Structures are given as structure tokens and as C-alpha cells.
């Protein structure tokens, strides 16, 4: 026999069940990008890197074959970009040379634009406002 108490507790039990199977508040992207606590010196970024992934956020994602987009960071604080892909890499430089610098706040400034960055083994990640679907670049070290 169904009583008035049952009608009172049934919605309460139902809302508890739904509340416990809600979305998780963890975000894998945030975990990757929050690992920038270690200060990386400018010498860690020197050398030749190939761009393999450019994610524009909501717009589209571009993957690149080896040797399509080559970036060389030199000891003079100059970045040389050789883009054979034809893809506009904005706000990153598309082709040519520009200055870069690394500051103590774990930011890299390229051609006046500041990015967060992370270097793990032979992978360089540059990102800007990823929580708001900002650009994300993934490079692989070649030399």
C-alpha cells in the first residue's frame, strides 16, 4: 500500500540518484596544462621543432605531416618558422622570423603574444586561454 510518506521520499531518492551520476568536474586538458609548475629555461626550448597539431578551439583542428611546419628556436631569441602547409597558424607566426622570450612566470612570448607552455620529453605544447577554447599547438622535437 502506497502512503503519503512514499510520495514524499520518492522524489528525494530520485534526485539523490540523479545527483550522484552527474558529470565529473575533472578535465583532462586542465590536468595537462596545469603541469607547468616547473620553470623551464630558454635553453630547453632551443632547437628544431615540427608542428604536429594546431587546435583552434571551436573552429577546427589541423594535423600536420613531418616537415610541413618547422620551427627553429635559436640562442639569440629568434624563432624561424617555415610553413609549407598553407594553413594560417594565427595567432602564432605563419612564416618568417620573430623574437621570442621566456619569462619567470612560465610564459613564452612569441612575436609579442604570450603563451603558456609545457615541455615533456620531446614534446612542446603552447596554449592560450584553452579554458575558453583558445589556440593550442603541439610540437615534436627533431634536433
Whole-angstrom Rg: 22 Å
N to C succession of SSEs = HHHEEEEEEEEE
Mean model confidence by pLDDT: 78
Total helical elements: 3
Query: Which stretches of 5+ consecutive residues score pLDDT under 50?
Result: 22-26, 28-39
What do you see in this structure?
The chain has three helices and nine strands, in the order H-H-H-E-E-E-E-E-E-E-E-E. The chain has 143 residues and is α+β, with helices and mostly antiparallel strands. The radius of gyration is 22 Å and the shape is elongated. Residues 22-26 and 28-39 have low confidence and may be disordered.
How would you summarize the topology of this molecule?
Blueprint: H1 4-20, H2 28-33, H3 42-45, E1 47-55, E2 61-63, E3 69-73, E4 78-83, E5 96-103, E6 107-110, E7 113-120, E8 123-127, E9 136-141
Antiparallel strand pairs: 1-2, 1-3, 1-9, 3-4, 4-5, 5-6, 6-7, 7-8, 8-9
Describe this protein with a few key phrases.
3 helices, 143 residues, single chain, eight-stranded antiparallel β-barrel, 19% helix, 9 strands, alpha+beta
In short:
With 143 residues, the chain is an alpha+beta fold.
Amino acid at each position: 500500500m502506497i502512503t503519503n510518506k512514499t510520495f514524499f521520499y520518492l522524489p528525494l531518492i530520485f534526485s539523490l540518484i540523479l545527483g550522484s551520476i552527474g558529470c565529473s568536474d575533472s578535465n583532462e586538458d586542465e590536468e595537462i596544462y596545469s603541469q607547468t609548475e616547473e620553470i623551464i629555461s630558454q635553453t630547453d626550448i632551443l632547437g628544431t621543432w615540427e608542428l604536429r597539431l594546431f587546435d583552434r578551439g571551436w573552429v577546427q583542428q589541423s594535423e600536420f605531416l613531418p616537415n610541413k611546419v618547422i620551427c627553429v628556436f635559436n640562442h639569440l631569441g629568434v624563432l624561424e618558422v617555415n610553413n609549407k602547409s598553407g594553413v594560417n597558424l594565427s595567432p602564432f607566426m605563419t612564416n618568417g622570423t620573430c623574437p621570442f622570450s621566456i619569462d619567470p612566470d612560465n610564459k613564452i612570448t612569441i612575436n609579442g603574444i604570450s603563451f603558456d607552455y609545457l615541455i615533456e620529453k620531446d614534446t612542446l605544447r603552447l596554449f592560450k586561454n584553452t579554458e575558453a577554447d583558445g589556440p593550442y599547438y603541439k610540437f615534436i622535437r627533431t634536433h
